[in-house]
Design a protein that fits this description.
Helix content: 55-70%
Radius of gyration: 25 Å
Distance between the termini: 26 Å
Shape: globular
Structural class: alpha+beta
Length: 514
């Protein structure tokens, strides 16, 4: 057994521990804190006993038992790490001021780019001080504050906020509290009195990035009108503020909403296709790889490097690196290693972050199913260099196959025509992403250049809009499935795992026979 394979088992055990503690070892299923401590002690003792087997045993058996023992210890470590993260949440000092009639004053800095809507703006405030009628306390936590659309605030502004703290609500069908919890936000405040105290705080690099992004957006808005402009901003920045509800519904119905979000599946597919596209136009493998990594990094920085995009970028970068070295089949281990380190930093992602789940599963789908789909099911489809239809179709269907159960479980509907719509849209994502970057930079440098490059950009965006609009008008475009149980989710992935394993075994058999 190789060292990398042993480490893979350790990583899977750690992830399994987080999964157990976040889904099964919960108070809802009768597991109290004391019972968890008992389980940890039993696992710890069992793991140590297996590692400390008598030296009289055969070396291979002793090594096997030692590996099992360390796997149990990593399982215990995963359980403990998730419990420790939950304990940190319970220690939040701001929670003592939630849901009371007391009006408090918060002084803090806008720590992330404001999320601007039509009539309101959401500010993520990194608090520095809390002032009440009787006390003043230094607190460093995050608060999500909903304020009026105007006056505008930007990243790095120091503000004083006066209002009442609340715990995040839980809506029917959507746990907003858990959604914020994974990002370290445990308190919200709605429509408080706000006052600007100072400017220019925060990280200077991030201020520069957000300033550049705003100029880029202004350039795009100068030359492109809606709904194409809304699709452009969503595709590049993950910002859906300029997309109307009508078009959001159309994107949902056709199963193409992922192209307008900073989702793991979107970044993964775009990164994979940019590399394939760069290779198809004649660039050397090293040049194509460097260009793809540069564009991926530039994209993440331009949208402000939110945690979701960084995590998806790490996953996509892992896949692209494996493809660069010609070891796509061995990339599964690297993806699991990446997931292990991300979950070590934030174990709440496994259950609470759908984007993390989608990026992880989309990459696994491309790794394990894309070659099979390409060689077995789509072998008669042409694959020209400039428009690699077979590669695009195989990658898209493979990613969607692995993410379909998660999407059904979380959103309760499936788009029946999603493969057809994505087949027409996804192939143009890589060239249009590159074209939008060129258009934006050209427009910022010289107006006539921006106008010239805006024409092909508008053409591609109009093509996407037309495809989405046409498919959304079909009566049988989607199927709603309500109350999908988590047991169905587990069964789906067990079946999918068995099918994938069979495909892999058949591929190995063909290779050996050859």
């Amino acid at each position: 057994m190789t060292a990398s394979k042993i480490f893979l088992y350790f990583c899977l055990s750690f992830i399994g521990g987080i999964f157990l503690d976040s889904t099964i070892f919960t108070p809802q299923l009768g597991f109290s804190s004391s019972s968890k401590v008992y389980l940890l002690l039993v696992g710890l003792i069992l793991g140590i006993l297996l590692i400390s087997v008598p030296p009289s045993l055969h070396l291979r058996k002793r090594a096997g038992l030692a590996v099992i023992g360390f796997c149990i210890l990593f399982l215990v470590l995963g359980i403990w790490r998730h419990q420790e993260a939950e304990i940190q949440i319970s220690k939040s000092k701001l929670q003592n001021y939630q849901n009371t009639e007391e009006t408090i004053n918060l002084i803090g800095i806008v720590g992330e780019e404001p999320a601007i809507g039509e009539k309101s703006t959401k500010l993520t405030i990194k608090t520095e001080e809390i002032l009440t009628e009787n006390s003043s306390l230094q607190i460093s936590e995050k608060v999500l504050v909903t304020v009026n659309r105007y006056p505008e605030y930007k990243y790095g502004d120091k503000v004083k906020i006066t209002g009442k703290l609340e715990s995040p609500p839980v809506f029917e069908g959507f746990n907003y509290r858990d959604f914020l919890k994974k990002d370290g936000v445990y308190s919200v405040m709605s429509w408080p009195k706000t006052e600007l105290v100072g400017e220019g705080f925060g990280n200077s690099l991030m201020r520069t990035i957000f300033s550049f992004k705003n100029k880029f957006q202004e350039t795009c808005r100068t030359f492109i009108s809606s709904p194409q402009e809304g699709i452009l901003e969503a595709l590049i920045f993950g910002d859906e503020a300029e997309i109307s509800k009508e078009w959001k519904d159309k994107l949902n119905l056709t199963g193409t909403r992922h192209i307008t979000a900073v989702s793991g599946m979107n970044i993964t597919i775009i990164g994979f296709l940019i590399l394939s596209f760069a290779l198809s136009i004649g660039l050397w493998r090293q040049q194509a790889f460097c260009l793809s990594i540069f564009l991926l990094l530039l994209y993440i920085l331009m949208i402000g490097a939110p945690a979701s995009a960084v995590r998806a970028g790490i996953m996509a970068g892992t896949l692209m690196t494996a493809q660069y070295f010609g070891r796509l089949s061995a990339a599964g281990r690297a993806v699991i290693f990446a997931a292990f380190f991300m979950l070590l930093l934030n174990p709440l992602l496994l259950r609470l972050d759908v984007g993390f789940q989608l990026s992880f599963l989309a990459i696994l789908g491309i790794i394990y199913l894309q070659p099979t789909f390409s060689d077995r099911f789509f072998k008669k489809i042409p694959n020209p260099k400039i428009f690699p239809l077979k590669t695009t179709l195989a990658s898209t269907i493979a990613a969607q196959t692995f993410t379909l159960p998660i999407l059904l479980y979380n959103f309760g509907y499936v788009s029946l025509l999603s493969p057809a719509a994505n087949l027409l849209i996804v192939p143009v994502l890589a060239p249009i992403t590159i074209l939008i970057f060129i258009f934006g930079f050209a427009g910022m440098i010289l107006w006539p250049l921006g106008f010239i490059f805006s024409l092909p950009t508008w053409f591609f965006l109009t093509y996407i809009v037309s495809v989405v609009d046409w498919f959304s008008k079909l009566s049988f475009v989607s199927l709603a499935l309500e109350n999908v149980h988590w047991v169905w989710l587990i069964i789906s992935y067990l079946i999918l795992g068995v099918i994938t394993w069979r495909f892999q075994e058949n591929q190995k058999l063909k290779f050996l026979n050859y």
